[in-house]
Amino acid sequence: EAKSPDAFAVTSYSTAEEATEAVRNREAIGAITAGPDGITIVTASAAGTPYSTILKQIGEGLSQTGQPIHYTDVAPLTAKDPSGSAISMLALPMIFGGMSSAVAFSTVFKKSRRKQIIGAIGVAILGGLIASATLYFGFGAFEANFWPTTTVIMLGIAAISLTVLGLNSLLGLAGIGLGAVLMLFVANPLSGLATGAAWLPSPWGTLGQYLPLGAAGTAIRSSAFFDGAAMGQPVTVLVCWIVAGLGLAATGAWRARR
User: How many CA atoms lie within 13 A of 180 on its CB side?
Assistant: First the structure.
């Protein structure tokens, strides 16, 4: 607190088990528990490697007191991707997969909003399946919950694609440009895909969680490593973006008929 005021929001728990469960449920990025056997540093590497690193540094400082220090990781990364870099690799496939399909189908099916939407959803399903299979079976970055994680990736691509399609339907080429700026230059840096949202300066990390890429990244971590803990909000955000994109497309079609 002296070195970095307000860097952490600290919550106290009555038992070590409650503190550890809070980390498993994604209510905390880590925990420090004290007991007869010494101090235990509880981490969750899959939530973001910077958190584990800084907690281990705190553990090294506490070791100077002479107390035994133990470490436990309740959500470890896989042996083939110990740094968690594969998660950050999803950013460009989701952004360009969503945007390129939106541009392609809005060009090929200029007069049919229905075909544009069906095509975008088809690409989201196929692209999500390919990206997920690559991460699971190619890179070995994920091991558990293949289908829930795949579904989240599909929702992420669909949210981006349908939003850009909706903007194009309503604003034309300017809508595609606006969508590109929003997804690539706003949502991408605020997503926290590489580090986790809490590592970003406030309030930008929180804002990023209400954009498609940030919500998808959080939901992917929750699904692949935390058995779906704290997955409700990011999935709801993705669905809201999908519905908003469909609403924009419908509004654009209505304007065209008028």
Answer: 12
Q: Please give the Cα distance from 11 to 72 (Å, whole number).
A: 19
pLDDT tens column, 121-175: 999 999 999 999 999 999 999 999 999 999 999 999 999 999 999 999 999 999 9
Predicted confidence (pLDDT) per residue in 220-236, tens digit: 999 999 999 999 999 99
Distance of CA 77 to the CA centre of its chain: 15
**For residues 179 and 244, what is the distance between their CA atoms, to the nearest angstrom?**
13
3-state class (DSSP) for residue 39: strand
Neighbours of 10 (CB within 10 A): 7
Write out the DSSP string of 40-68: EEEE-GGG-HHHHHHHHHHHHHHHTTT--
The position carrying tokens 């690559």 is 134
Place of tokens 């007191």: 65
Q: How far is CA 206 from the centre of its chain?
A: 12
**H-helix segments, the chain:** 16-24, 49-63, 85-88, 91-108, 113-133, 146-171, 173-180, 204-208, 212-225, 232-257
- Could you give the C-alpha distances from 194 to 11, 18, 89, in angstroms and in order? 25, 28, 8
